């Protein structure tokens, strides 16, 4: 039996992962499941999967979790240190599907135990790519991509020589507003931004798809995962979300990965890698699909995308600043304090000023969990200050 843990088990990726492992209950020994506020779901799954421990990220939810687990031999724990402790429990395969920078510390800890880390939490690669990769190398651990584009690229590279790779193209659906008149974006609401045309995902990544902050994170994620230069990474808008990524080689060949928009494919690929197993995903009928379309992303509609290239050009700890500023701007958008387009404006402003604001300990400090966390806090504070100034 393979020992597995799922961080962010109550979320969209976590639930898809659980759907797959429940289909083969004898194959897996579930160690830890973690969640946030959705205690009922966390307890239900911990009981059904007979987990050793269930962890909520929120200390004030511990009593509720304990109550929900009454009568079952499952430990309950809460808070950030409990997440770390759960990551220290031996596991062969760990799903990293917490949303946001909060996924970084547990992911690092799982790698230190030598676990294979299935990485949905792209934020950790964006804010601390070289730290994660170096930790994996030092502990002989492996990181497998779960983001659909990166899983697609990973699959396209099997048996290939990286020296022959010319470019990597990742696709973007264009999100909720891809066909809206530009003038309407300014007043787009949270509800409107929270519905995705093709994928069923958590709210935050769905809004990030509409703004293309998600694709900006994925461009940086591509650079970290595949060690290519920024100018080798391209984004193309592909409204059908059937082609997930393409790898271009030096002989002109472009290898595409196609599949239905269902995260259980990429999760299942990471779960069974290096094998391929039967997965419960739709088989495409190409004649029925009839056509696949592609277009260049419009920089006026998606100003967030260029920021990824600016961040990579600056290097150092700028990824941590970028991700944190994005997360905080998104918090404020969801809370109704700023408009949809203000998110990219604010993040660009923080990036432009951070060198000056960081003082002695800044972007060029060596990358450790502490320095990444410091930059993360600084960037969140800068976003808050900018909004306070605006609203007086
Ligand atoms: P969801 O919002 O659906 O789920 C997030 C999970 O993280 C939940 O289990 C949530 O708990 C938990 N959580 C929230 N805040 C914290 C915190 N501060 N500390 C610890 N746990 C927390 O997100 P998704 O499943 O959509 O996304 C998860 C990750 O996967 C993200 O990094 C996203 O970018 C990435 N991803 C997602 C895809 C998708 O299809 N959904 C596709 C590709 C990548 P609770 O709900 O109980 O509060
Ligand atoms: Mg993706």
TrEMBL record:
<feature type="binding site">
    <location>
        <position position="209"/>
    </location>
    <ligand>
        <name>1-deoxy-D-xylulose 5-phosphate</name>
    </ligand>
</feature>
<dbReference type="GO" id="GO:0030145">
    <property type="term" value="F:manganese ion binding"/>
</dbReference>
<feature type="binding site">
    <location>
        <position position="215"/>
    </location>
    <ligand>
        <name>1-deoxy-D-xylulose 5-phosphate</name>
    </ligand>
</feature>
<dbReference type="GO" id="GO:0051484">
    <property type="term" value="P:isopentenyl diphosphate biosynthetic process, methylerythritol 4-phosphate pathway involved in terpenoid biosynthetic process"/>
</dbReference>
<comment type="similarity">
    <text>Belongs to the DXR family.</text>
</comment>
<dbReference type="InterPro" id="IPR026877">
    <property type="entry name" value="DXPR_C"/>
</dbReference>
<dbReference type="InterPro" id="IPR036291">
    <property type="entry name" value="NAD(P)-bd_dom_sf"/>
</dbReference>
<feature type="binding site">
    <location>
        <position position="149"/>
    </location>
    <ligand>
        <name>1-deoxy-D-xylulose 5-phosphate</name>
    </ligand>
</feature>
<dbReference type="GO" id="GO:0070402">
    <property type="term" value="F:NADPH binding"/>
</dbReference>
<feature type="binding site">
    <location>
        <position position="218"/>
    </location>
    <ligand>
        <name>Mn(2+)</name>
    </ligand>
</feature>
<feature type="binding site">
    <location>
        <position position="12"/>
    </location>
    <ligand>
        <name>NADPH</name>
    </ligand>
</feature>
<feature type="binding site">
    <location>
        <position position="148"/>
    </location>
    <ligand>
        <name>1-deoxy-D-xylulose 5-phosphate</name>
    </ligand>
</feature>
<dbReference type="InterPro" id="IPR036169">
    <property type="entry name" value="DXPR_C_sf"/>
</dbReference>
<feature type="binding site">
    <location>
        <position position="121"/>
    </location>
    <ligand>
        <name>NADPH</name>
    </ligand>
</feature>
<feature type="domain" description="DXP reductoisomerase C-terminal">
    <location>
        <begin position="258"/>
        <end position="380"/>
    </location>
</feature>
<feature type="binding site">
    <location>
        <position position="173"/>
    </location>
    <ligand>
        <name>1-deoxy-D-xylulose 5-phosphate</name>
    </ligand>
</feature>
<feature type="domain" description="1-deoxy-D-xylulose 5-phosphate reductoisomerase C-terminal">
    <location>
        <begin position="143"/>
        <end position="226"/>
    </location>
</feature>
<dbReference type="GO" id="GO:0016853">
    <property type="term" value="F:isomerase activity"/>
</dbReference>
<feature type="binding site">
    <location>
        <position position="214"/>
    </location>
    <ligand>
        <name>1-deoxy-D-xylulose 5-phosphate</name>
    </ligand>
</feature>
<dbReference type="InterPro" id="IPR013512">
    <property type="entry name" value="DXP_reductoisomerase_N"/>
</dbReference>
<feature type="binding site">
    <location>
        <position position="147"/>
    </location>
    <ligand>
        <name>Mn(2+)</name>
    </ligand>
</feature>
<feature type="binding site">
    <location>
        <position position="10"/>
    </location>
    <ligand>
        <name>NADPH</name>
    </ligand>
</feature>
<comment type="function">
    <text>Catalyzes the NADPH-dependent rearrangement and reduction of 1-deoxy-D-xylulose-5-phosphate (DXP) to 2-C-methyl-D-erythritol 4-phosphate (MEP).</text>
</comment>
<feature type="binding site">
    <location>
        <position position="122"/>
    </location>
    <ligand>
        <name>1-deoxy-D-xylulose 5-phosphate</name>
    </ligand>
</feature>
<feature type="binding site">
    <location>
        <position position="36"/>
    </location>
    <ligand>
        <name>NADPH</name>
    </ligand>
</feature>
<keyword id="KW-0560">Oxidoreductase</keyword>
<dbReference type="GO" id="GO:0030604">
    <property type="term" value="F:1-deoxy-D-xylulose-5-phosphate reductoisomerase activity"/>
</dbReference>
<keyword id="KW-0479">Metal-binding</keyword>
<keyword id="KW-0521">NADP</keyword>
<dbReference type="Pfam" id="PF13288">
    <property type="entry name" value="DXPR_C"/>
</dbReference>
<feature type="binding site">
    <location>
        <position position="218"/>
    </location>
    <ligand>
        <name>1-deoxy-D-xylulose 5-phosphate</name>
    </ligand>
</feature>
<keyword id="KW-0464">Manganese</keyword>
<dbReference type="InterPro" id="IPR013644">
    <property type="entry name" value="DXP_reductoisomerase_C"/>
</dbReference>
<feature type="binding site">
    <location>
        <position position="196"/>
    </location>
    <ligand>
        <name>1-deoxy-D-xylulose 5-phosphate</name>
    </ligand>
</feature>
<dbReference type="InterPro" id="IPR003821">
    <property type="entry name" value="DXP_reductoisomerase"/>
</dbReference>
<feature type="binding site">
    <location>
        <position position="202"/>
    </location>
    <ligand>
        <name>NADPH</name>
    </ligand>
</feature>
<feature type="binding site">
    <location>
        <position position="38"/>
    </location>
    <ligand>
        <name>NADPH</name>
    </ligand>
</feature>
<dbReference type="Pfam" id="PF02670">
    <property type="entry name" value="DXP_reductoisom"/>
</dbReference>
<feature type="domain" description="1-deoxy-D-xylulose 5-phosphate reductoisomerase N-terminal">
    <location>
        <begin position="4"/>
        <end position="129"/>
    </location>
</feature>
<feature type="binding site">
    <location>
        <position position="11"/>
    </location>
    <ligand>
        <name>NADPH</name>
    </ligand>
</feature>
<dbReference type="Pfam" id="PF08436">
    <property type="entry name" value="DXP_redisom_C"/>
</dbReference>
<protein>
    <recommendedName>
        <fullName>1-deoxy-D-xylulose 5-phosphate reductoisomerase</fullName>
        <ecNumber>1.1.1.267</ecNumber>
    </recommendedName>
</protein>
